[in-house]
Amino acid sequence: IHSTYFVVLLVEHHSLSLVVHSSCYLNVYIQFGKMVNVPKQRRTYCKKCKVHKVHKVTQYKKSKERQASQGRRRYDRKQSGFGGQTKPIFRKKAKTTKKIVL
Secretion signal: which residues (predicted)? Predict the structure, then answer.
């Protein structure tokens, strides 16, 4: 069984995302405070076993963008030829710190 659920905890008014890898094949995303040392293991609820268990926690990394994806092909087709930039390029950065995703 592969399933995902979200747990939100507020600590120090910052947010941080974790991916929890368990022996029960669950991917659990937990958000909690940014300015804390994150333990390598957490006791969280396992939906498969229906009990709390120790789960390993690692930092989440974004995968490389696929060049053949439908959105990429559509964007490249729209960009080709004359006419300049067709989609808006986002330049307004509001936040000074970035949320860390684990």
Answer: 1-17
14: number of Cβ within 10 Å:
15
The domain tally of the chain equals: 1
Joined tokens for residue 65:
């963008």
Range of the domain at 43: 3-62
> The pTM is what?
0.40
Q: What is the 3-state secondary structure (H, E, C) of 25-81?
A: CEEEEEECCCCCCCCCEEEEEECCCCEEEEEEEECCCCCCCCCCCHHHHHHHHHHCC
Model pLDDT for residues 24-60, shown as the tens digit of each residue: 544 444 554 455 677 889 898 999 999 999 999 887 7
- Residue 40 within a domain: yes
